[in-house]
Amino acid sequence: MKGIKYSILIIIIIANSILCTSCWNYREINDLSVIFGLGIDKKDGLYEFTGKILLTANEENEGNNLSQTFISSQGLTIFDAIRNLVLKDGKRVYFGHLAFIIISEDIAKENINEVLDLFMRDDETREDMWMFVAPEPYSSKEILEIGLDHQELATYVNDTMINMKHVGKSYPIRLYEFINISNSKGKNGVVPLIFIKKTLLGESAYIIGNAVFNGNQMVGKINGDECKTLCVILNEQKGGILPVTYNDEAETTTVSLEIGKTKTKLNPVFTDDNITIKISTQTTAVIAEIMNNNVNVLDKEGKDKLIEAAENMIENNIKDLVKKAQAELNSDIFGFGQLIKKDNPSLWKQIEDDWSNIFQDIDIEVNSVVEISGSALYEKIIK
After folding, report:
1. β-bridge pairing 363-372 and 275-290
2. Which of 127, 300, 311, 368 is buried most deeply by CB count within 10 Å?
């Protein structure tokens, strides 16, 4: 009996050794165009696909290091344009390493989800790729091809998005996050803007601000400072600098407050025919910089005035951004609708189909509290 068991075990081991020694869908890297950056524009009614691909040592690349080049094609659809690359490059595109996608403003204004559909369905595409909009007059192709003179574009994009929480002047978003928002009711998405900017080292890519969407259509933009306020409202502010203008009887100065943390609470209040969103923020900061040493903001009176100025500034910034979202953009980028749905589901069922119009008329009440915990490593005014 033992002999039979051992024989069966040996047969299983031999069979596994034969059948499990390779990948069924294995493909050589030289047979693929490995793409890690992508730009999509529209030209003469056709989608223009521009990809940044890696070159192996056997492809116009001396030595063993990997270099990069660009490929471009056009088609009636995104998939058509991608497959047309075979006519130019002779290889199929591989999306497994695609890290970011740049979409032109004209496409974003039409229907951005039409060009994103393929990347959500394709089994090779990474759903966590970063998304960007190239604002006019720039095309995504221009930005993708210029890259950075002093740093590889993919590295710049990834590092900037990860560390943007310390600056707050753009709200990062990944592909799956945007799709989830655009497929839900009660909140609209934002996508970072990527420009071309002249620097001492030449022209470079530059990320600041966000494109604002209503559903799947871009309806406007918010600048870097407005993005910082958006992060506050969404309870996503992880740090950053708040430059506060301080006035006393004789002098005016600007004080940089380094934000430690900000906690935001949104509370919907329902009356007979009205909805009010109460926004409460609590910010902890330290005095990081005083631009005018003739002004004393370190004693009790000076610090109290500085706190009042900072609280007023945060409150006004929130009111201004909400007003812009209501009157100019008509886009609930704050998720007020989802807040109402969670707090009062029965009311939401009655208003969800008309939320775009109702959002424009809701009231807000803002209360901001700032606590200054110190003045970094130096506690005196530098004369």
Report:
1. parallel
2. 368
Q: What pLDDT is attached to residue 67?
A: 65
If you average pLDDT over every residue of the chain, what do you get?
84
* HSE-CB of 243 using CA atoms within 13 angstroms: 6
- Regarding predicted confidence, which is higher, 153 or 106? 106
Q: In the structure, what pLDDT confidence band is assigned to residue 152 with cuts at 50, 70 and 90?
A: confident
pLDDT of residue 377: 44
- Dist. CA 85–CA 87, nearest whole Å: 5
Closest CA relative to residue 212, chosen from 181, 243, 252, 237:
181
